[in-house]
């Protein structure tokens, strides 16, 4: 793993807890639920797989995949449905609460970029990485994957994906105010040029 990723991960894990509620922040009830399924000790790999099994198994949460809406961790836990963003938020939030060294990773394919109502949409897949100093895992709803296909991203970038997705969805539903508000929220977290262009397109189309 590159040194800059290790340094960023160390800061994420070592930093003091913040009172700010993020889209992946679990409730105390969600944490207690996870603690029931995941052993308090053992290897990172064993505990990470136990958490995944608890989320996707019918004996656990039984969360199913859906692509209609990007949800927060608490929303995904409540309705037991999530796209890749919602699942990543849910897994990472619980993993960190269980002291697993979790961070966001992204696989992006700009070759598959398209347009929706004039806004640019890039095909990307958000997942969770785990690193214990000797081995790395990448996990999403379907299971564990080769980490070489994914790139580390900061927490703010991951959160921006949520608001960007919601902004594009609002635009397709002719919710101009919702689209602009969500895209602006995403742009405050990351200076992604695609989000900036989409905000301009939606603002112009809505007459803002």
Question: Can you put this structure into words, describing what you see?
Answer:
It is built from 8 helices and 7 strands. The radius of gyration is 17 Å and the shape is globular. Residues 12-19 have low confidence and may be disordered. The chain folds into 2 domains: 3-112 and 124-153, C8orf32 fold; 154-208, no CATH class. The chain has 208 residues and is α+β, with helices and mostly antiparallel strands. Helices cover 49% and strands 21% of the residues.
Short structural description:
With 208 residues, this protein is an alpha+beta fold.
Number of helices: 8
- Unreliable residue stretches: 12-19
Shape: globular
Largest sheet: 5 strands, antiparallel
Kindly report the average pLDDT value. Answer: 87
Helix content: 40-55%
Share of β-strand residues: 15-25%
For the terminal residues, how far apart are their CA atoms? Answer: 44 Å
CATH class of the largest domain: Alpha Beta
Q: Looking across the biggest beta sheet, what order are the strands in?
A: 6-5-4-3-7
Number of domains: 2
What class would the helix/strand composition place it in? alpha+beta
Whole-angstrom Rg? 17 Å
* CATH topology description of the largest domain: C8orf32 fold
Tell me what the CATH architecture of the largest domain is.
Roll
Work out the number of β strands: 7
